[in-house]
Amino acid sequence: MTTITREMTWELAKNVRSLGRLDIPGGGQVVVQGDYAYVGHMDPPNGTSIIDISDPAAPKVVSHIDPPEWSHTHKVRVAGDLMITNVEQDRRHFLRKAEKIAGIRDELGPDATNAKVAEKLGVKESDIPTLEAFLQRGYDAGGFRVWDIRDKTAPKLLAYVKTHGFGVHRFDMDENFAYISTEMAGYVGNILVIYALDDPANPREVSRWHMPGQHLAGGETPTWTGYGTRLHHAMRCGDEMWAAVWNAGFRVIDVSDITAPKVTGSYRFPKAIPEPTHTVMPLENLVDGRRYAIAIDEEHDHKPGRLHGFLWVVDVTDLDNIEPVAAWDPGERACPWIGQPGGRFGGHQFREKLDTTLVYTTWFSGGLRIVDVADPHMPKEIAHYIPEPQADGTPPQSNDVDVDDKGRIYLLDRNRGLDILEMTR
To answer: Hey, what CATH topology would domain 13-423 get?
Structure first.
């Protein structure tokens, strides 16, 4: 038997060059306004950083805000002189397993050792004291905070709105409203809660939207189990909200009357698509007279033989007849770190502004992929940038991206680092 091997080489950058890099703890979101970038860090004790990017070769942190106890503040939005940061329970999915301990102990009876409880929960035996301590402690810090950022070196807290449960995940905002994805009392899973910001020190709720089955306190019964059908977040686009609802695909919501959101379009991907819908929003301009939207799946634990998550192009010209026309992914050969520890590979997020046909999207260990959808039926990658691994060999985990008005690209790693880039063509 003869074994033939061939060393593969990867082009880590194509049509993109580095302008600078800032070695900071990893994050969940980066947004840019003027000469400043705002980063929501993934893990406490790191919270939110404001970064002077006026010199892209020498970015510098000018202020940092700590998260509340037991929380992370990994998402951030800015509009004018207002900044909003989420407050969400850190390690939320792991800690929620604690709610099942009592039932498991009842089921096991006299045999309910920590080892057997841990086996049922799918955790380590040493995790049980941590989970039980959480049950005793509880969590009531979830919500969002509003900041005055006229002085970037000293953000001033204006309001801390507490919601419920896990608290707030990703969200959208403008100078008038905050569009919050959060758990709320009486509901299962995140819903949309819209707050007016006319008095930023006192945000006031103006409306809610949820999917049928979520409002348990209102007598509704979900047709699903667990938290897999919920709002991830909704983006304001004119008089519409484009809502990614995880395993249920996406919804288009009319908010021309902000007090009464209503669904005008709905699409659920086939069951053969294993990954949940993370983000969806339309291109700002028509292409050949038709309206298209971009959606992206979030890749989780990939199982061999299953499809990866995709970047989708969806024809939304007729909201009563929504139809995907293309699905794109770079393929595993685009990444040198497939299968390596910490090398999660697949789609996650794209720049949440689609003013051209270029889609800037993050692909975890696949880095930044820049895809042109000028032909909506045939998306074409025109550039990419894959950061180098960390010093300990951990592969990159490109998590979020934004682009400033000079065309500079800000690529945030989930574990560590902010890269400032530009296209070379």
So the answer is: Methylamine Dehydrogenase; Chain H (2.130.10)
